[in-house]
Specification:
With about 290 residues, the chain is of the alpha/beta class. The protein has helices spanning about 15-30, 45-50, 60-65, 110-120, 125-135, 155-160, 175-190, 205-220, 230-235, 240-245, 250-265; strands at about 5-10, 35-40, 85-90, 95-100, 140-145, 165-170, 195-200, 220-225. It has 11 helices and 8 strands.
Length: about 290
């Protein structure tokens, strides 16, 4: 069964899309087949990080997600492979880019059904089953979903269908209240796993101290504290940091976060997972016992 992981943030500019792409690359490098879905229709950016051009729409995936007819028989991947803009080999695995723009409403919605649809809201079961059907047909083991900052029915829908949600936090004082609201919503929606990841921490902050403060406030939810690095800024969203700088401490921290997520989600089929709770921190600033 494919595992769905969505990444959310309370505002733009905290590196959520870069994180989604680089974590997907980390998983693929260990031999997994990983789908990446860009759900941010206003500011899509996933395809560009992989050096690909996003399609204007993903009609085939939309049709499959919202189709209520039985799926035709056949081998996994034999029907929906064309919905991917690109399949990119990374290490012994693959990242598959799901194209363009996924509708959060059925594209063939009839006018007479509109009032009922607006009154009843989205059906998370239908969307979740649709995404998993697409993932199964593409033989994907994990699907990472890059969402968008606005808190609306769409972001709550992605929460509801996810096996895990990563809340990406910048150290802006205005974010903490919004983050608490998102965490409450995620727990209300009974998301199995909710993680907090502080990203792009300025050099003036000690990573260990940031970790301790967040851990004090959010407990086990904290999964990583990542610094701002010049090399990432230098890429200018034109490539994957993990591939450009595989031996950089930040790349090792990303690997540790991916491993911890896999460890929490359950046994992996062919990845040996090492404990990673402090691997995102410099050796001299690990959280105190």
């Amino acid at each position: 069964m494919p595992t769905l992981i969505s990444l959310q943030s309370c505002r733009h500019g905290v590196g959520r899309t870069n994180l989604t792409a680089n974590l997907a690359a980390c998983l693929a490098s260990q031999g997994y087949r990983v789908g990446v879905l860009d759900a941010d229709g206003a500011e899509p950016g996933i395809h560009g990080l992989f050096g690909r051009q996003a399609a204007g729409s993903d009609a085939a995936t939309n049709q499959q997600v919202w189709n209520t007819l039985p799926l035709p028989t056949g081998e996994p991947g034999d029907r929906l492979q064309t919905t991917a803009n690109a399949a990119i080999a990374i290490g012994s695995g693959t990242v598959l880019l799901l194209g363009g723009d996924l509708c959060l409403v059925p594209p063939d919605l009839r006018v007479r059904d509109l009032r009922h649809f607006l009154q009843q809201g989205y059906d998370p079961d239908q969307l979740g089953q649709g995404i998993r059907t697409v993932a199964e047909r593409l033989a994907l083991e994990y699907v990472l979903i890059d969402t968008y900052p606005e808190l609306d029915e769409g972001t709550m829908l992605w929460m509801a269908v996810s096996d895990g949600v990563v809340l990406v936090l910048g150290l802006d004082a205005t974010e903490f209240q919004a983050l608490a609201v998102r965490m409450d919503i995620a727990h209300t929606l009974e998301v199995p796993h909710v993680w907090l990841l502080a990203n792009q921490v300025p050099p003036a902050y000690a990573l260990g101290e940031v970790w301790r403060k967040l851990e004090h406030s959010y407990g086990a939810a904290i999964i990583g504290v990542l610094p701002t690095v010049e090399e990432m800024m230098g890429l200018g969203s034109s490539g994957l940091f993990y591939l450009a700088y595989p031996d950089h401490p930040l790349s090792h921290a990303l690997e540790a976060i991916a491993q911890q997520m896999l460890q929490t989600l359950g046994p992996a089929s062919h990845l040996e997972v090492a404990p990673a709770s402090s691997a995102s921190l410099p050796q001299d600033t690990e959280p105190a016992e």
